[in-house]
Amino acid sequence: xxxxxxxxxxxxxxxxxxxxxxxxxxxxxxxxxxxxxxxxxxxxxxxxxxxxxxxxxxxxxxxxxxxx
Length: 68
Ligand SMILES: [Zn+2]
Prior knowledge:
There is one protein chain. It is built from one helix and five strands. By secondary structure, the protein is mainly beta. It has one domain. It has a three-stranded antiparallel sheet. A two-stranded antiparallel ribbon has the order 3-4. A hairpin with a 6-residue loop joins strand 1 and strand 2 (14-21). The longest helix is centred in the middle third of the chain and has 5 residues, at 23-27. Zinc ion is lined by residues 8, 10-11, 39, 41-42, 44, 46.
């Protein structure tokens, strides 16, 4: 299993869209615009589609910037 992530256009951080799936299910997802996601990085909402998204299965990706 992995988490679908998109990159916040404001902060350039990867944020989870709240959907966990596996590689096979992700591969067959239609490329449609999905429901907006509340962004934990900038506080806004972003619409996204599959082409914006990556499937993060390793959990090794860290945010580029950290704010305390
Ligand atoms: Zn954002």
